[in-house]
Amino acid sequence: MVDLDIAAARPQAPLPTPFYTWALPDGAPWTDFHREHGGYLLRFPGLADFHVSADAKRVTCHPVPGTSDAVVQHLHLNQVLPLALSKQGSLVFHASAVEVDGGAIAFAGVSGRGKSTLAASFAIAGFRFLTDDGLVVEPADRGHVVLPSHPSIRLWEDSEEALIAPGTATAPAVDYTSKARFLAGDRLRFCDERRPLRRVYFLGDGGVPGIAFRQLSGTDAMIEWVRHSFLLDVEEKPRLASHFDQVAKLANEPIHFALDYPRRYEDLARVRAAIVEHARKASG
Question: For the segment 180-215, what is each residue's pLDDT rounded down to a tens digit?
Fold first, then answer.
């Protein structure tokens, strides 16, 4: 649980050098990570400051004057909340997940690899989605389970045009990204219950002539999971040690595969069918 309080808007005062920064593709800072009073300050330059308590259960946001509530909620859901959950000890990854045969199939990859597009493709075909990013995984008596996230999917304009039917409910637009957020409903089905994690597919860059699956070793799976982890404090040694131990246990499950396929919207139905068939054969 993470409580968000939106405080008064105020300009962003100068701060010392952050201990860590997320950068945009052009090198500009996207998120600056600072420590303060036993907690953290996450600065999104020109947009908002989020103050995270030491236990990561409380977040206070001071938006920059002119930043809308929609932008604040967008930043909280997609950036701050996953980081806060990671500080609380949860495994949180840059990955989407959908429900197939009562289990969860996850898709992990860097931005632009098609995680959300795959989730939306499955959801409109009747396979409910659990999350389009910020995948939360918990250990269970047998294996791991995936927890449902916010019932919405964010898509770039080309994926929207290819997949989303007119009239699908949307969240308010935000001005710092051209992605639109589509809300779950009859057209975009959502699973609001935890599901056992049955398969994980790490997505390639699309530079292949056809659909290709390759099982990963535990070592390779761990490297991939670490690459795609949300971590609030990358210098906190006890939390890092715990995180690596958790990831190692997850990676040692024989459910991890590399998946690559040509990025053509007209092929998505075929890709979806191949994934379902592969997951079912592997389970068998």
Answer: 899 999 999 999 999 999 999 999 999 999 999 999
**Is the domain of 232 the same as that of 152?**
yes
Q: How many CB atoms lie within 10 A of CB 170?
A: 13
**What's the whole-model pTM score?**
0.92
Number of domains in the chain: 2
CA 131 to CA 41: how far, in whole Å? 26
Same domain, 67 and 122: no
Same domain, 154 and 229: yes
Q: Which of 56, 88, 120 is the last residue of a domain?
A: 88
- Asked if 92 and 229 count as a contact pair (C-beta separation under 8 A), the reply is yes
Which structural domain, as residue segments, surrounds residue 10? 3-88
32 shares a domain with 115: no
My answer on whether 181 and 263 are in the same domain is: yes
What is d(CA 36, CA 47) in angstroms, rounded to the nearest whole number? 19
